[in-house]
Amino acid sequence: MKKFLSNIVDSFFLQSKALKLKLLNHIIEHPLEKIPTSNDIAENYGISSITVKKIVAEMANEGYLKSNKKAGTKAIEHFSKTQKHLFLQTKEEIKKYISTLEENGLTLQEILACLYAALSEHSFNETELIYTERDSGMVFIGASELSERLGVKIKPVYFENVKKELSNSHNKPKAVIVPFYCLDFLRKHSAIIKILPIQTTHPLDALSGSKSIAYNSNVMYVAVSEEDKEGAFSLQKKITQGAFNLRINKIEDIVKNPRLLHSIELVVTYKWVINNNEHLFRNVPKIIAYNRFDDKEGLMLIKHFIDSNKLGG
């Protein structure tokens, strides 16, 4: 039963992120213990060994692991006894809260939503920039990409919650980054908040009239959300023009059923999707992945605003 529940939890996370969290939990609870080989971890969790090696290398760089060709990979004694005790104590308390929520009829997905919201609100308490757009599935991808490319912490906010966020007198953001197509809704707030527009790019737009795709090829667009999927369907006829076969699936459907990629010769999607699900696409012959934002001028203006106002994250 525990393994079954663990698999359910994993399905809500990207496998690579879930594995890193599991390894970190193991390191805290079992310091100095030898970590299984990358091949063993890959086999146990159904993740490619390349992905596992990247995670191990990343955790070594962060000071959690120490690799040695002869002795193998070991956890570094990174935490004090007080930290370890507090970690274990809090973990048990959270497990009790989860049981109480389950007893009161909340599903595991709803409990995870509660935990994620609590972590997000804590992490972004002092963030001075937010990102929002109408496609709720894209909000987190957009904020993640902007945070990485601009070098500051940017808070993702659902579009319907922006008004509430702007009225928060305690943690009111300095600016809102938003796609151009959402500008009209936010214009009335322009007197009290700086609005920074940016142009979004759809991966399928780049395929319009493309002559580099072999005739009758099997191409798949991997969508992030239901709205993204519907938008791709609206572009399908214009993009393919009968030259190739375009299938459209959400990433969550592929995670549940990797066989959807069988016979696919080309995958088109966002870089975020590929970077976080490499193991799923390792047998696809060709992948074309794009950023959410290729608006160099927009990014430059946002960066100038951040630097001028000395905003950090």
Layout of secondary structure:
Layout: H1 2-11, H2 15-29, E1 34-35, H3 38-45, H4 49-61, E2 65-68, E3 72-75, H5 81-103, H6 108-123, E4 129-131, H7 136-150, E5 155-156, H8 162-166, E6 175-179, H9 183-186, E7 194-198, E8 218-223, H10 226-240, E9 245-250, H11 251-256, E10 266-270, H12 271-275, E11 286-290, H13 296-308
Parallel strand pairs: 4-5, 4-6, 6-7, 8-9, 8-10, 10-11
Antiparallel strand pairs: 1-3, 2-3
Helix pairs in contact: 3-4
Distinct helical segment count: 13
Q: Note the main sheet.
A: 4 strands, parallel
Indicate the low-confidence ranges by residue numbers. Answer: 1-6
* CATH structural fold name of the largest domain: Rossmann fold
CATH first level of the largest domain:
Alpha Beta
How would you spell out the order of helices and strands? HHEHHEEHHEHEHEHEEHEHEHEH
Total number of β-strand segments? 11
Taken from the alpha-carbon principal axes, the silhouette is globular
Proportion of residues in β-strands: 15-25%
N→C terminal distance: 41 Å
Please tell me the CATH architecture of the largest domain by its name: 3-Layer(aba) Sandwich
| Overall mean confidence score, pLDDT | 82
Describe the strand arrangement of the main beta sheet, using strand numbers.
5-4-6-7
Structural class: alpha/beta
Helix content range? 40-55%
Quick summary of this structure?
With 313 residues, the chain is α/β, with parallel strands linked by helices. 47% of the residues lie in helices and 15% in strands.
